[in-house]
């Protein structure tokens, strides 16, 4: 294979952080090379150097055999390097074609925008990709998967032969992921070189040729994807073996019911849902995209108003109309989008932990007792093993796993005894996942009643004492946790409409 990228001995420091330590990476034409590592391992920093966002402190970058200094994103584009970030950078109210050629729009001979030519150019790119997308469609109207195709088309419009994809399937369902993989395989067959950053082990085995692992800013090794067991890659990432066994399934039949939902209804996404959650239990919620799992959680938490049904907390009916009502009832909700709905990214760790409990640290004149607040924040940082230089660090600078722990600390400080975790490990690396799993299991052992919503079936099976399965807004069944339930059992109920649920109360 022809080598198109070679990065050697790359060093990068930020104030107080040695981000890259003699890092290295190479890429061949026509291959998918996965770049893996825990959050904070240096993957994104290395790729930001390759795409011109950062400059290295030292080291060399070779593109097509020649050493280059990539002074910025435009210089990277000129070298044929394109990057597709996890957070898509499209303008939702412009058309597909306008997004692809923004700042480079074709002009007529009178110097005005030639919309017809712009759309023809976009159509030619989609034809080459074999993607049936209308350049005239407004981006806001597209699914996330289609928007991802627009980002790829935009990169290809710069004649990119090297594509960096950062967590490209984070917000995609299974069908959309297959659609993206088809595009990746087609680009690969045409000689495009692809750097694929992901935490999803099953994807890495399916789509990549080689895997390079980084840890603590340094290069660990490169292996062949097809011949390397997943356990080996995980050990390379975290520097140790991880416990992959499922949690014990205790007998909770005599435990008090913490939360009972009866006939909960809201539109077509929540239809006559009933279940019970016991103290000390982890109840997993599984189902395909659009099954109604998040919608059920939002109604319970008061973020959406229920049309019918009853919510009973510790045996007492609760009129939960707003999130404040839910919090007063002892219910905490960790949204699937923690950056928008769980955290104030520009505020420090201490402020985020205290966000829902500030009245505990304020006097009647709204003066905050900083010493008491610092003590509590320090205690949670220690007990949850939150990796941060101090409680004054801005939350936006923490890794995904540590951000999630800050959200958990916020609800624990509020002393919520019913916790709803929606996609608790989305965008979190394998080592941090294991820490979150241990934390959830310890919370359950301490008597917290926990709902876990997850799109990852292995995660649901590993964590849950029971598993509630939804399809098209209905609860189609509740399965036992542990080895007696398989992914096939879950999928059977996840695709089965209007099935009468069994086992709603254990």
Tell me about this structure:
32% of the residues lie in helices and 25% in strands. The mean pLDDT is 87. α14 runs parallel beside α15. With 506 residues, the chain is α/β, with parallel strands linked by helices.
In short:
By secondary structure, the protein is α/β, with parallel strands linked by helices.
Q: Note the overall shape.
A: globular
Distance between the termini: 58 Å
| Total of DSSP H or I helical runs spanning 4+ residues | 17
Helix content: 25-40%
Low-pLDDT parts are none
Lateral arrangement of strands in the main beta sheet: 6-7-8-3-9-10
Number of strands: 20
Radius of gyration equals: 25 Å
* Estimated structural class: alpha/beta
In percent terms, what proportion of residues is strand?
15-25%
Largest sheet: number of strands, sense, barrel closure: 6 strands, mixed
Descriptive keywords:
506 residues, globular, 6-stranded mixed beta sheet, 25% strand
């Amino acid at each position: 294979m022809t080598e198109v990228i070679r990065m050697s001995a790359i060093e990068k420091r930020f104030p107080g952080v040695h981000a890259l330590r003699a890092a290295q990476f190479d890429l061949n034409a026509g291959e998918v090379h996965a770049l893996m590592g825990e959050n904070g391992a240096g993957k994104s920093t290395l790729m930001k150097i390759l795409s011109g966002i950062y400059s290295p402190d030292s080291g060399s970058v070779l593109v097509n055999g020649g050493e280059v200094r990539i002074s910025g994103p435009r210089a990277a584009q000129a070298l044929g390097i394109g990057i597709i970030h996890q957070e898509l950078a499209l303008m939702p109210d412009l058309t597909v074609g306008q997004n692809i050629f923004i700042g480079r729009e074709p002009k007529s001979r009178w110097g005005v925008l030639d919309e017809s030519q712009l759309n023809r150019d976009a159509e030619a790119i989609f034809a080459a990709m074999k993607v049936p997308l209308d350049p005239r469609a407004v981006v806001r109207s597209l699914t996330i998967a289609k928007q991802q195709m627009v980002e790829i088309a935009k990169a290809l419009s710069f004649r990119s032969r090297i594509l960096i994809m950062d967590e490209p399937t984070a917000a995609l369902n299974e069908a959309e992921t297959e659609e993206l993989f088809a595009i990746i395989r087609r680009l690969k067959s045409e000689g495009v070189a692809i750097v694929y950053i992901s935490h999803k082990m099953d994807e890495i085995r399916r789509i990549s040729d080689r895997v390079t692992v980084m840890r603590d800013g340094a290069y660990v090794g490169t292996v062949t994807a097809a011949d390397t067991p997943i356990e080996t890659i995980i050990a390379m990432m975290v520097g140790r073996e991880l416990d992959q066994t499922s949690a014990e399934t205790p007998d909770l039949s005599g435990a008090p019911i913490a939360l009972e939902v009866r006939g909960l209804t809201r539109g077509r996404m929540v239809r006559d849902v009933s279940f019970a959650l016991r103290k000390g239990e982890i109840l997993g919620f599984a189902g395909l995209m659009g099954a109604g799992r998040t919608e059920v959680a939002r109604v319970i938490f008061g973020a959406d108003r229920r049309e019918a049904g009853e919510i009973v907390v510790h045996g007492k009916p609760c009129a939960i109309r707003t999130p404040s009502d839910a919090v007063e009832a002892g219910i905490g909700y960790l949204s699937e989008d923690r950056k928008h709905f769980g955290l104030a990214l520009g505020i420090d760790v201490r402020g985020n932990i205290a966000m829902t409990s500030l009245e505990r640290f304020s006097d009647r004149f709204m003066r905050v007792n900083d010493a008491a607040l610092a003590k509590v924040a320090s205690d949670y940082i220690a007990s949850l093993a939150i990796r941060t230089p101090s409680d004054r660090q801005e939350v936006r600078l923490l890794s995904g796993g540590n951000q999630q722990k800050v959200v958990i600390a916020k609800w624990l400080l509020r002393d919520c005894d019913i916790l709803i975790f929606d996609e608790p490990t989305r965008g979190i690396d394998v080592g941090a996942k294991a820490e979150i799993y241990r934390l959830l299991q310890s919370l359950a052992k301490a008597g917290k009643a926990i709902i876990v919503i997850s799109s990852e079936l292995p995660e649901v099976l590993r964590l849950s004492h029971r598993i509630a399965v939804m399809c098209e807004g209905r609860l189609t069944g509740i399965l036992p946790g542990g080895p007696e339930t398989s992914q096939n059992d879950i999928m059977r109920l996840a695709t089965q409409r209007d099935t009468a649920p069994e086992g709603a109360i254990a």
